[in-house]
Amino acid sequence: PVTVGVLALQGDVREHVAALEESGARAVPVRRARELAAVDGIVVPGGESTTMDKLLRAFELFEPLQEAVRSGLPAYGSCAGMILLADRIAGGIEGQRTIGGLDITVRRNAFGRQVDSFETDLVVEGVPDSVDRPVHAVFIRAPWVEEVGPGTQVLARVPSGEAAGRIVAVRERDVVATSFHPEITGDLRLHRLFVQIVSDRG
Ligand code: GLN
């Protein structure tokens, strides 16, 4: 099987490790540059992007991770992970940096305070039969994608309500990101999609 790392500085690491293992990958936590060098793909979990940014620098992992993603290491980010994989950020804190990899502008905490957390069903491009069996998406102080570059594929939009039409899942080459948290719902289809991307590359 392929080996997929989960960035393990902060956030919901265990949930991603479990979902990846159930999706047929070998999943390993990554805290050091040498651990990063040993994986075929990397997951950046949900959590708090500002904290992860600081920890990435403290662990001297910021540049190695940026370099790895730039060189084509497949990456999947959920929620805070989406923010970290975005080339541009709106609503970040002073001095907040991102790893980048996706030619998108992401808006942090985009859905507003009154809807800190919400759930909805989504059709996600590339997820088998999500038209008949939608992906149940859980959003927790989530970002949305405000702008996508010409090479970025939109995988999902919010179907209805105040945020209708907002982009919440994207892919560019082998980099995927979702505003929501499939790792906590038991639906493995997004993790399987990512494991497939990693396998196809090897
Ligand atoms: N609001 C968080 C951030 O800015 C993301 C929340 C999450 O990952 N659940 O990083």
From TrEMBL:
Catalytic activity, reaction form: aldehydo-D-ribose 5-phosphate + D-glyceraldehyde 3-phosphate + L-glutamine = pyridoxal 5'-phosphate + L-glutamate + phosphate + 3 H2O + H(+); L-glutamine + H2O = L-glutamate + NH4(+)
Membrane-spanning residues: none
Binding positions (L-glutamine): G47, E48, S49, R108, I140, R141
GO MF annotation list: glutaminase activity; pyridoxal 5'-phosphate synthase (glutamine hydrolysing) activity; transferase activity
Pfam family, one: SNO
Keywords, ordered alphabetically: Glutamine amidotransferase, Hydrolase, Lyase, Pyridoxal phosphate, Transferase
GO biological process annotation, one example: L-glutamine catabolic process
EC id: 4.3.3.6, 3.5.1.2
SUPFAM superfamilies listed in its UniProt record: Class I glutamine amidotransferase-like
Subunit structure: In the presence of PdxS, forms a dodecamer of heterodimers. Only shows activity in the heterodimer.
Xref: PANTHER family: PYRIDOXAL 5'-PHOSPHATE SYNTHASE SUBUNIT SNO, PYRIDOXAL 5'-PHOSPHATE SYNTHASE SUBUNIT SNO1-RELATED
Protein name: Pyridoxal 5'-phosphate synthase subunit PdxT
Lineage: Bacteria, Bacillati, Actinomycetota, Actinomycetes, Micrococcales
